[in-house]
Amino acid sequence: MHKPIITAYGENAFLLKWPSVIDTKMHDEILTWEAFIASSFQNELLDIVITYTEIAVYFKSNIALDTFSSIVHSMELQNDLSIRQKPTTWLIPVCYDKELGWDIEVVAEQNNITTGQVSNLHTAQPYRVYFTGFLPGFLYLGGLSHQLTTPRKETPRLKIPKGSVAIAGSQTGIYPQDSPGGWQIIGQTPIEMFDLLEAKPSPFSPGDYIQFQSVSKDTFEGILAEIEAGVYYIIKGVHK
Fold first, then answer.
1. Residue 97's domain spans which residues?
2. CA atoms within 13 A on the CB side of 82
3. E strand or H helix at 16, and its extent?
4. Are residues 61 and 121 in the same domain?
5. What is the Cα–Cα distance from 176 to 170, expressed in whole angstroms?
6. Confidence of residue 74 (pLDDT cuts 50, 70, 90)
7. Distance CA 40, CA 70 (A)
8. How far is the C-alpha of 176 from the C-alpha of 160, rounded, in Å?
9. Contact residues for 95 (Cβ-Cβ < 8 A; gap 6+)
């Protein structure tokens, strides 16, 4: 198990940092450290924030760096992945119609494939949720096919519709709210990715997986109507 570098991170906070790589095995280790920290300091924590290769830990009150580091480094002796919760796979419907996927032709052209191949490749495998950022509920997803790698737009748009499914470099993600953005839009999901009225506004956690499913424009609109009526629920299961 890789040993993190631990430093003070402002008042009552610490930063744990690992090598700067996007890697599933490394992320498994990071999530195990996060679970251990949450268990060890559960009554003293204010928040824990995860990125690809870092964990920021925020405490309600002051704790010495030496004390924190000593407890955290005891994790090295355990090397136990069982303390993590089993990840969930979420089935997310996406309409890849050009009317909603504003840049699907751009992605196809840059990669010398058809728009049909873009949707087929994008739905071919599940994507790991590495972390949430940029916007509340914005999922940074890893595992994009190299055949879909496309740079961000040179000039970001002032408004991207919520639910837009997009690509930037080797990443893919979903815009949870209307916002500015520079990612390449290849489709849209009708699913609400972030809802403040829910006990857990974003149901997705780092380590979970997203499986995209291509749907027609009619099915997309039908799901929107079911969501509005409160009769649609995301399909999920334990990731194997």
1. 88-238
2. 2
3. strand 13-17
4. no
5. 20
6. confident
7. 12
8. 10
9. 101, 187, 188, 189, 190, 214, 215, 216, 217, 219, 220
d(CA 29, CA 144): 21
Number of domains in the chain: 2
Domain boundary among 17, 50, 83: 83
Within this chain, do residues 58 and 154 fall inside the same structural domain, yes or no?
no
Span 42-57, mean pLDDT?
Answer: 92
Distance CA 88, CA 138 (A): 17
Q: 112 in the Ramachandran plot: left (φ > 0), alpha (ψ -120 to 50) or beta?
A: left
Whole-model pTM over 0.85: yes
Phi-psi region of 227 (alpha: psi -120 to 50; beta: other; left: phi over 0): alpha
Residue type, 226: E
Q: Can you tell me which residue has the tokens 């580091």?
A: 69
What torsion do the CA atoms of 213, 219, 223, 224 make, to the nearest 10 degrees? Answer: 110
- In this structure, the answer to whether residues 111 and 197 fall within a common structural domain is yes
pLDDT band at 50 (very low <50, low <70, confident <90, very high): very high
Residue 19 structure tokens:
């090598």
Instruction: Report the helix count and the strand count for the chain, using DSSP H and E.
Output: 5, 14
Tokens 């997986």 belong to 209
Average pLDDT estimate for 103-131: 97
The last residue of one of the domains, among 83, 108, 130, is 83
Residue with the two structure tokens 């990125």: 51
| Residue carrying the six token digits 């060890």 | 40
